[in-house]
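Form P-L/3: holo structure prediction, ligand iron/sulfur cluster.
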Amino acid sequence: MQILLADHAGFCFGVRRALEMAEEATRSHERLYALGPLIHNRQVVERLGRQGLVVCEDLEALPAGAVAMIRAHGAGPAVYDLASERGVTLLDATCPFVARVHRKAAQFVRHGYQVLVLGDPNHPEAQGIVAHTGGKALIVEDPVDLENVHLRRRVAVVCQTTQTLESLRVLVGAVLPHVQELIVANTICDATVNRQEASVVLARRVDVVIVIGGYHSANTRRLAEVCAAAGTPAHHIETADELQEEWLTGVAKVGVTAGASTPAEAIEAVIERLREMGSAESG
Ligand code: SF4
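OUTPUT (holo model):
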C-alpha cells in the first residue's frame, strides 16, 4: 500500500507562532493561563499543561497580576478591557490573519454596511469577529440562516479564516439578488487555502484519505469535507490508534493530510501505523 502525504499538512503560521509564544512564556512565568485551549489539539494542550500552561475559560476567575494568553483565534475588545480592569497581563497570540478580519469587519460597520460573517456561530473566532463590530455583525453558517433576516441595501461579507471558497461562493450567490451593494472580503487565510487545495489534489490521487486533527478543529473538519466533496472517502481521526483496518481493505493508495493545529509527531505516528497495517495486509 502506497502512503501519500499532502503538500501542506500540519501546523500553520498562526498556530506555530502561538505555541512558540506559549513555550517561551512558560519558561519565564511559573504559571501561565490560556483563555481556552491554546489550540484545538488535546495532546499538545496536555503537553503544555505539564509545562505550566493552565487553561482557563473565565478571565474573572484569574487573580490580579496573572498572565493570560489570547489564542490565535483572537478575542473581542471586552476581554482586553476586563483584563486591564482586573490587572491581568495579556499575551496576545491572535493570528495576524484573524486580526485582519477584525479590522475589516469593524471598518465595514463604520462605513454603514450590514456585515455578515461566514462562519460557525459556536466558534470563538467567529464570535470574536462579531465582538469587534460591537455585536452588529451576524454570523451565517449557511444561506438558510438568512431566511428570517432582513437584508439591508448595503451588505458586506467577511469569513472566518478557515471557511471554504465554495461556501463563500454559495453565500454570495444567495445574498446578491437581494441587495443593491455587496462587498466581499475573502478573508480565508492562505494556510487554509493551501491545505484545502493540497488535500483536494491528494484526494484525487488516492483511494481513501486520513485527515488528522482535533475534533473541535474547524479547519480539520473542512479538510475532511473537501476530500469527501472530491469523491474520495475521508476519515477524520485525532490519533493513530483510531485507524481502522476496514478503511484500508482493497486500498492501493492512502492519502494523509492534517489540520493547521496538528503536530508533526501526530502525522508521523499515523504514517507509521499505516505502514504497519499496509504490510500486515500484504503479508
Ligand atoms: S488557520 Fe490561518 S488564520 Fe488560523 S491561525 Fe492558522 S494561519 Fe492564522
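COMMENT: The chain has three domains: 2-10+190-282, 13-95, 97-184.
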